[in-house]
Amino acid sequence: MTRLPPTRALTLLALACALAACSRSESPEPPKPATAKPAPAPRSEAGSDQREQSGAGTRLTIYSGDYDQLANAGEPPGRYTPGFALVDSTLHYKLEAGANTITLAHLPRAIDSASATLRGNGGVRVDAQRFLAPPAGAEAVLAAAIGQRVAVEHTSGGARQVDNGTLVSAGEGLTLALPDGRTKVIRQYDNFSLLDGERQPPAEPTLRWQVTSQQAGESKLEFSYATGGLAWRAEYLARVAAGDECRLALEGAAMVANRSGVSYRNVALTLVAGEPNRVRHDAPERFMAVQAAAPPPAPVADVVPRRSGEYYAYPIPARTTLAEASVERVPLFAPLPGIACERGYRTHPASNPWIPPRPLVAAGYNNESGPQPVNTAVTFANTREAGLGRPLPAGRVRVFEDGDFLGESQLGHTPEGSDIHLDVGIAFDLTAERQRRSFRVDLGGRNMTESFAITVRNAKDTPVTVVVDEPLPRWSDWEIVSSTVPGDKRDAQHVEFDLEVPARGERVLEYTVRYRWPAGMTP
Question: What is the pTM of this model?
Fold first, then answer.
């Protein structure tokens, strides 16, 4: 074997190194994207308190519905947590010229990750987006650890032992590829650890974007997403003035529940009375390109409700903080005094709102008989003339009179111009009893008749008028053929009678209804 002189060997080595250097200069490895760092927001957007900087540029829109389910939820927030809200915020980052990576954590656990959108300005382009979800449990961590280096602690021969290796599979125990080339199956183990620090699963929901900036410097980006875990309902306080003339003051507030997994501090809050349809997707999250859309305009801070599509929005004028796992009370409007109202009484049997597809001729149907309560009611018109006149979102109404609690009632979404009827309790001095007097079916004549008697007794020292609300559920084509008190058709399945009952006396309402159906229809 011929040996080269030392000087020639060194020369060849230097030449090889030079060639290697040239090769590297001609085909460089692509540089890693720069990691973008958050930049402080301008004072005009950040507010006076730096702890609320992240929320000062945030607009939060929460939709009604799911409040009771959410407020009483005992499960931690997750993908299918009830409630619905839209979040729009401004992010400030220091970007390098070229490729950058932006990572944003502290996101709600109930976030709809597919709805997340980041929009840059004219000099910043969003290239791709990835959502990293925290594992749901130990099995999810194991599944994600396949192919990673792990340390498994277990007991072998009565002694504690730790094995390091690459996790090959996880099923009935753990299968490791050990550094010495062996494969080891550990049937029983105490715990395991992931050794690769850069591949640890996220502890909280995280979004990561690849963005390209034309120049270095601070940049402002618009970020928006939808999330569950936020819901609200209205809470009303009605104070009825004592005396013969019925007048009430109505005060409105919103109860806002936050079970999203994060707190929202110093945000511009808008509450929407409406429940839009939503589509659930079960597809797995994946790396995707982003086509960012412009965020909606910021809501105008005004106490007056505004239309929001087919719903009504209530922009809250003051900035609001919604702490995680809290229920916040937010004023909707100040007390509106002097609303004209009426006190009243109403009685009705239990009924099923179901509309039958054909006449119901069974004798046992609609045969509710015996005592039934007489409810006290407060009625007023949602009009400007009556002292109100505004769209009222659904919620609970608590009613007081001269400091005494009368009861509470549920109010649905109520547009302006509607009549509001609140059943607040059961009258102590009024009782009612219902009896069916007769029922007859004439199949040849395609009709049936039914008669009832409702007795109302009054133990008060003053006369009262009780509205008797009677269901007519057997068929939609009906008429009252006889009654001791005139009746008014309330809707397709109800008739109402105003029954005047004397002081310390009673009054009996008797009526007969006839149902008809066309030829060719079989009951």
Answer: 0.72
